[in-house]
């Protein structure tokens, strides 16, 4: 058992604006515990009516300043926790801090650079590397990803699902069994056999999370995300299985709603934005007070799920993320205060070992067989399960004559056969009960003197037999006990099943392992039910791109106009720079990988040739030279191979980052598109009133500019004409050009040089081929596109002016 208080670390985020001097200082004296001092500027400090202090000091295990790299954070904070998880202890790392202070950056990582990857991908990489190195155990790894928003849990790893809002994701609920174990119903556990599979799951969850977020539901700041790595290990041949879980938790923003202003009780009186963080604080307070017996874990889903991590069987670490800018000082101080309380909580982590009864039974059966064989060798006879009728009759005759024999020296000889011995006792008991026997004393005397005689006559052999018999009996008992255990487990499982409404996708969580081995049948059931899900996993993992593609698949169904608008939106979007940058890096990495691959092949063939050439007939010097060349080649080969492996991981990661960025872009486009469509419907009388006599383009705000833009039909202008039939036709009057170069020439040059291939292809498409259909969805798509084009052109025009 390891007793340990929750470890607390602080990480200061680089400021958005230029560093404000003198707001904080870090004292990192080697001998003392490091401390962070937050110094309030005079104007702020004066505002504290009840508290004239100007500086606040907080102690942490370690404090990481603005320039701390992700690598440093992983090495110092996450690696030790991952190490103890590999040993079989539960671990939790949670990030706490206000929105924007760097929780997600620390836990998951930044979306732009490979070097920005956070604790989760680095920990996965570390764990799989260690598992590969350790061949003494068999490991299985499962991943789950849970989001808690507004007291509801959502499974972020649902593969079948097309989430467009959080409510579309499968709801996860908590069940508590009579032993107070927490079960998370509907949370899927996915097996990951490699780092790559695990990373795919992380990205799938993050993508689902991003897609489900809407401006109304700012889930990323108000929800908690728990990424869990479930690790089971077993030594070959052993019946003991170790289970450990690592929760990596990105908590909701800790900021409070009502700031009472600088003059009020700024640091004491404030409301919580997030009720479940309030409950977390209550749990922490209760745990840090010495004599509290009741800890209110059940008040919220998050504290229930993390019950083990808080004051239980877990090694827990907290990272306080701080944004130490003047306007954030009050939030930073409350984050530090919270951390100081957390640091008082003691946890007791134990190895989570379980005997797997199925394996135990197998082992005992094997042992019994071995003992039987041994017995057969000693006695020279093979035994069947039961005695034959003839043997039984013979025995009973023997017993009768033995009982009737008045000679005190007489013996009942049945040999070293437990079946016969047992049957004798059985029969004697029966005779006794039937009162067909002379008297208790006689029997007991006879039996005791009998056994004494036997003992004296064949002490050694008898001793050996007895030992074997005893062991056999013990094993029989053990099997009986185990069978009873199994029966009980089965009953329990049935009760739980009943409780869970026979839901097949229920998995054990928290205190219990992912696949509890307590009951073979239950185990089987879980294995069976997990089998298709694993098969599914493979198809998901194998088709990451197709899955992400599915997420972005809306594009395929887009009308041409919408597609074009998307291309332009994409071109003007800030993220496209990141995507392009990453594309460039990817290209470089690919060619680096290719070159490396070639060098590796070359090195390999050189090694082969050199080895073949190392014949003993060579002069010593030459041979020596060849040998050292060979060594050098081998070293080079090894270095290149390691680099290639690292490159592969990096390429994978970059691809995932790009996929994610694309999904984000697509999502933002959809939002923008919808807004444009709505604005159009509200603003455009042409659409509202179907007034076909007015050119539709002249209906919105800056008519003058538009008429300038679109009046010159002879230079390729275009308009929308109403046909008076309830149908709209968009027609190109002259050259059927959609890009009429409405702006002055310098701009138009820029325009044409930056146009996309799709854009280039558009003019060839007659506008009249995009009739308004009367189908409001399609029509509004077309109209929204026209409006969007118009506003882009306007912007470009204004920009060039
Ligand atoms: P939170 O999850 O706490 O709301 P984020 O992790 O999303 O905050 O961080 C907000 C922004 O600050 C992001 O753009 C992130 O990339 C950036 N950021 C946070 N911490 C760091 C850091 N240590 N170094 C560089 N950028 C950071
Ligand atoms: Mg965040």
Helix content: 40-55%
| Oligomeric state of the chains present here | single chain
State the distance separating the first and last CA atoms: 73 Å
Write down the overall mean pLDDT. 73
What structural class do helix, strand and pairing data support? alpha+beta
Number of helices: 24
Rg from alpha-carbon coordinates? 38 Å
Q: Which small-molecule species are bound to the chains here?
A: adenosine-5'-diphosphate, magnesium ion
General shape:
extended
Strand coverage percent: 5-15%
Major sheet attributes: 13 strands, mixed
Q: Please count the beta strands (DSSP E, at least 2 residues each).
A: 20
- Poorly predicted spans: 258-272, 443-456, 501-555, 686-774
What does it look like?
This protein has 801 residues and is of the alpha+beta class. Strands 2, 6, 7, 8, 9, 10, 11, 12, 13, 14, 15, 17 and 18 form a 13-stranded mixed β-sheet that branches. A hairpin with a 5-residue loop joins strand 10 and strand 11. Helix 5 runs parallel beside helix 19, helix 17 packs parallel to helix 24 and helix 18 runs antiparallel to helix 19. The longest helix is centred in the C-terminal third of the chain and has 64 residues. The site of adenosine-5'-diphosphate has 14 residues, from helix 3.
Give a nutshell description of this structure:
By secondary structure, the chain is α+β, with helices and mostly antiparallel strands. Helices cover 51% and strands 14% of the residues.
